[in-house]
């Protein structure tokens, strides 16, 4: 009499035991577990923010350099948290599209200009002298005068005796004894300076006057201004040694601007620019 065939229910435990001892099955289970873990981790870390410790260390170093002393643990923690907060805000701003703003574009462009012109350059003696000779007119000092300014506290015409004192060149002390006001020197001043303070016509009259001659009045809300030249300094050209620092700084500024423009032109050559006209649809 043949033995009875095992039912499906009876065969299942045997198949399970067989699979548990099968290496390929173990590999499949591990792979599925890793896949599930990665999938879940990726979903839960949509806002993962990776921070480079070197960037934090650089900020701590710069702060210690500025203060001249090591930072406390609390200060280091504060810098770390500030940096993390900054990165979070930047990420959120980018997510909201806030970088698409003319002001932000301008700041980024300026930042890029600083990056492109980051090298510190210094002129040679020959370059400095050539630059000085090229711009001699820039360094030429115009004629200068020392003047005495007297301001009389009235806008109405002056009494005849005061006008006579001014016309005869009396000193400010004598004039102020008759008419209330005050006097003060204006030292080493150019015609352009006087134009800026008063106006072109008055400045021309002062520079064209005879030394010691009172020129006025110039009416302002303070009263009547009267000026007289007390000494003159003719136009002169300072030597390079006298103004070396100024010439050096101006050379550096101009050279940096030229190098920066060259770098920008090089970047420009990498792009094909197309201007798209705006739609005229209403």
Overall description:
- With 282 residues, this protein is α+β, with helices and mostly antiparallel strands.
- Among the domains are: 44 residues; 45 residues, no CATH class; 92 residues, Chitinase A, domain 3 (Roll).
- The chain is built from twelve helices and four strands, in the order H-H-H-H-H-H-H-E-H-H-E-H-H-E-E-H.
- It is elongated, with a radius of gyration of 41 Å.
- The N and C termini lie far apart (96 Å).
Please outline what is shown here:
This protein is of the alpha+beta class and 282 residues long. The protein has helices at 8-20, 23-44, 53-67, 73-95, 102-116, 125-134, 136-139, 160-167, 172-178, 191-197, 200-207, 244-268; strands at 144-152, 181-190, 215-220, 223-233.
Can you tell me the CATH class of the domain at 142-233? Alpha Beta
How do the SSEs run, as a string of H and E?
A: HHHHHHHEHHEHHEEH
Number of helices: 12
C-alpha end-to-end distance: 96 Å
- Please give the share of residues in helix: 55-70%
Name of the CATH architecture of the domain at 142-233: Roll
* CATH topology type of the domain at 142-233: Chitinase A, domain 3
* Unreliable stretches covering 5 or more consecutive residues: none
List the helices and strands and how they pair.
Blueprint: H1 8-20, H2 23-44, H3 53-67, H4 73-95, H5 102-116, H6 125-134, H7 136-139, E1 144-152, H8 160-167, H9 172-178, E2 181-190, H10 191-197, H11 200-207, E3 215-220, E4 223-233, H12 244-268
Antiparallel strand pairs: 1-2, 1-4, 3-4
Features:
Chitinase A, domain 3, alpha+beta, 282 residues, 56% helix, 13% strand, elongated, 4 strands
